[in-house]
Specification:
By secondary structure, the protein is α+β, with helices and mostly antiparallel strands. 19% of the residues lie in helices and 31% in strands. Strands 8, 9, 10, 11, 13, 14, 16, 17, 21 and 22 form a 10-stranded antiparallel β-sheet that branches. It has an 8-stranded parallel barrel with strand order 23-24-25-28-29-30-31-32. Strands 7, 12, 15, 18, 19 and 20 form a 6-stranded antiparallel β-sheet that branches. β18 and β19 form a beta hairpin. α6 packs parallel to α7. The two termini are 39 Å apart. Alpha-D-galactopyranose binds next to loops.
Length: 767
């Protein structure tokens, strides 16, 4: 809800209130952003006061109180007028660089469609504040979007040149927010290939911090999502603010803590290789930034963003809809496949309960490795002699949906496309463009290239009757021609144009986002893709922390996680398929291993996993997500709280002797209700016990011998038993006790044998 009271604007969401004012120097200031305030109260006590003038200030106006722009919590800032903090807007032009935008008018409208960017859907009110610098003949609009039900507030700006002289934008952020310094810590997320979403927590000293990306995409190096939290804020309690951008390109985040005790937060398009010229009558619109507040810790903050992504961001046709369980052949075959192999995998996948079959890289051109054919999306006849349509028909006939991998933004030098159109690749005028993963990037700023991409995709999607596509993007951009002064930005606008076109041509096509795993999972991409491949790292332990940290910003419903072979291709660590499932099931489940190599015991395990997942799919994809402990604590617990049930995923780090008593932290149960609890049944590999197995067998068994291999491949040993009834109030106490972990002595029904990096899934069902 947005209310206008005197010269204040009050934006209320279910979890926060933002109070803006235009009473000071006709500038827009944030008077309050935090916990939701009661409606219709006197807001005077929260307003900033300006009785005294700070020493050595540069005063904007001598009339009335002597106020400097340095002193007010401005929602935007331009330099050279007394505000010596980090500016959010820098314009240089024929008339100079001094811009003094003052309040002119406002309106409250229904959420408008954004120009060139994805627009969140659903109902939302939007406050538009128009500011003007008459002398410079320029207008600035600040837009505030109130996603009331989600608990999220959007912010973006539009700058307009009303004069004849040219204006050149050097910097224009989407959001500037000034908060009182209350000892915040900055939580940011860095990463790299197969190692996305590492959490970094740092105190905010009296310095200016800046991070972002200029690879051409939002990247895994530094996420545009970040948090400011009070020191004592934990997963479940305490105050924090979160910020993100609905944008997939280069971005810049800045936090400045000045000596007056104000923290200025700025986020938007990166200033590196960005300059936009505005001629008379032209305007520039920034992407939208979003922010949320939580008084209930990091989980509370995540819930705001989860609601926002589920209800307002992912394509409407897929919002809150169940996602299919998929099989992807990548780690199972890589480039080595033919129709026979694919069909036998598809049949096996169907038998195990999979719903969607995805043929990954290698089906087009003459692609036998990553050296060729990107750009040529005609079928590789040697591998698939009956064409895509033939394959698609056979897969559909099995009762599976069918999908394909593409890398639409890339071009191989060894391709028909490159031979015909070398100019389609991004390059500067004087160097041979650098390769990344043996490929170049298509110049999406060129309309002819965009038309080519749209056309190729439409042809294949139509001909192969696809239900799904995986859209990959495997390298960073280099060698741009800087005569286009905002090339990187225009590239992203070009990408959005293509995506818009594909989305409207195939509204029921399930599109999965991928960028070598998670190098471009952002709110912009999720506006077109209802799920994303989280990481190329499918090792369950690594993956568990990637998923957990990503969960602070994005809901499990957009996270595609696969159970891959026991030996991780990324780390060579061995974990059981059940452990992999216990991690992968928090989100959208998939399988990515050679199903024809499975032992009988593994087939049984996968069937049981899929049955379990189908039964609890709604909870696992759309339940309320809680993270309790993570990585650093040597164990991680995630709870998905659904309707009358909850599923908890427990992941252990390193196991140690003499285990301590362990409890399962949980929340959200009905105190008065009773729940059936159980551990998802799993088998233990007898080989795990080495020669210790002889302690319980009547005959001698050799540690690596034939006999143990037979038992290992066919039967396994039953893991611990753990089931019963428990009151909701005990579960809510956070002290629900688990069996002791194996600690070097004793084995039985009441001992949890997890080993290093083991995991379990617990189920709670209301009676
Ligand atoms: C990227 C993706 C993988 C797979 C390969 C195919 O690395 O992240 O999942 O699709 O490309 O080349």
């Amino acid at each position: 809800m947005i209310k206008h009271v005197d010269d204040l604007f009050v934006l209320s969401t279910i979890s926060s209130t933002l109070v803006l004012s235009v009473r000071t120097l006709k500038k827009v200031t944030t008077e309050y952003f935090g916990k939701r305030l009661s409606d219709d109260i006197d807001l005077t006590p929260i307003l900033h006061t300006y009785g005294a003038t700070r020493g050595r200030s540069t005063i904007l106006e001598k009339e009335g109180p002597n106020i400097s722009l340095n002193d007010i919590p401005s929602d935007f800032s331009t330099p050279l007028l007394g505000d010596y903090n980090n500016p959010s807007i820098i314009i240089d032009g024929d008339k100079g660089a001094v811009y003094d935008f003052r309040f002119l008018s406002f309106e409250i409208i229904e959420h408008r469609k954004k120009n060139g960017y994805p627009t969140p859907h659903g109902k939302a009110q939007e406050l538009v504040i128009l500011l003007q610098d008459e002398a410079m003949e320029a207008e600035l609009e600040l837009h505030y979007v109130c996603y009331e039900e989600a608990g999220v507030i959007g912010r973006y700006a539009i700058l307009r040149n009303k004069g004849k002289e040219e204006m050149r934008i050097k910097k224009i952020a989407s959001l500037q927010l000034v908060l009182d310094d209350r000892g915040y810590e900055l939580v940011s997320f860095n990463g790299n290939w197969a190692g996305e979403w590492n959490k970094d927590v740092a105190p905010i000293h009296k310095l200016r911090y800046s991070f972002g990306s200029f690879t051409g995409s939002s990247t895994d190096y530094n996420q545009p999502f970040f948090i400011l939290k009070k020191k004592e804020c934990s997963y479940l309690n305490g105050e924090c603010y979160g910020f993100n951008l609905i944008y997939s390109g280069n971005h810049l985040e800045e936090i400045e803590n000045n000596s007056y005790g104000e923290v200025r937060i700025i986020t938007g398009i990166s200033t590196l290789f960005f300059e936009k010229s505005l001629k008379e009558g032209e305007e520039f619109e920034t992407p939208e930034a979003v922010m949320a507040f939580s008084k209930d810790g990091l989980n509370g903050l995540a819930h705001n963003f989860h609601r926002f992504v589920n209800n307002n961001i992912v394509p409407e046709n897929f919002a809150l809809k169940p996602r299919p369980i998929l099989y992807n052949n990548w780690e199972g075959t890589y480039f080595k496949f033919d129709e026979g192999k694919i069909m036998s995998l598809a049949k096996k996948a169907k038998e195990l309960g999979v719903e969607l079959f995805v043929l990954d890289d290698g089906w087009f051109g003459h692609r036998d490795s990553d050296n060729s054919s990107l750009g040529d999306y005609s079928v590789y006849k040697k591998k698939l002699p009956h064409g895509l349509n033939g394959l698609s028909k056979r897969i559909h006939k099995l009762g599976l949906q069918f999908g394909l991998w593409f890398e639409p933004e890339a071009i191989s030098e060894d391709s028909e496309l490159f031979k015909a159109h070398p100019e389609y690749a991004i390059k500067d005028r004087f160097h041979k463009p650098l390769e990344g993963r043996n490929q170049l990037v298509l110049d999406l700023t060129n309309p002819e290239v965009r038309a080519y991409v749209i056309n190729s995709l439409k042809t294949v999607i139509g001909e192969a009757e696809l239900d799904y596509i995986k859209w990959d993007y495997n390298r960073c951009i280099s060698n741009i021609d800087t005569r286009d002064t905002s090339f990187f930005h225009n590239y992203i606008l070009g990408l959005y144009e293509i995506l818009e076109e594909i989305k409207s041509a195939f509204p029921n096509l399930l599109m999965e986002n991928c960028a070598s795993g998670g190098a471009r999972n952002d709110l912009g991409m999720f506006s077109y893709f209802c799920q994303g491949w989280v990481s190329d790292d499918t090792d369950s332990f690594q993956r568990s922390s990637i998923q957990a940290n990503m969960g602070l910003a994005y809901p499990p419903s957009v996270m595609d996680n696969h159970v891959s072979g026991k030996t991780s291709h990324q780390l060579l660590r061995k974990t059981s398929l059940d452990t992999k499932f216990d991690v992968a099931c928090i989100g959208v489940l998939g399988y990515e291993l050679n199903l024809n190599d499975l032992d009988p015991i593994d087939e049984k395990a996968i069937k049981a996993q899929i049955e379990f997942y189908k039964e609890h799919r709604e909870t696992l994809q759309y339940g309320t997500w809680y993270l309790f402990e993570s990585y650093e604590d040597n164990r991680q617990v995630i709870e998905m709280l659904g309707k009358d049930e909850a599923v908890a995923s427990y992941v252990l780090g390193i196991s140690r002797p003499n285990p301590k008593q362990e409890v399962l932290p949980l929340t959200g149960f009905e105190d008065e209700a009773t729940y059936d609890y159980s551990v998802r049944p799993t088998k233990l590999d007898p080989k795990r016990f080495g020669s210790l197995i002889n302690m319980v067998t009547p005959i001698h068994i050799k540690e690596e011998g034939k006999l143990v291999n037979i038992v290992s491949r066919r039967f396994g040993l039953d893991a611990e038993k753990f089931q019963g009834e428990v009151s909701g109030s005990i579960l809510n106490s956070g002290l629900f006790r688990l069996h002791l972990l194996w600690g070097g002595t004793g084995f039985g029904e009441e001992v949890r044998v997890l080993g290093d990096f083991g995991a379990r899934t617990y189920l709670f069902k209301k009676k």
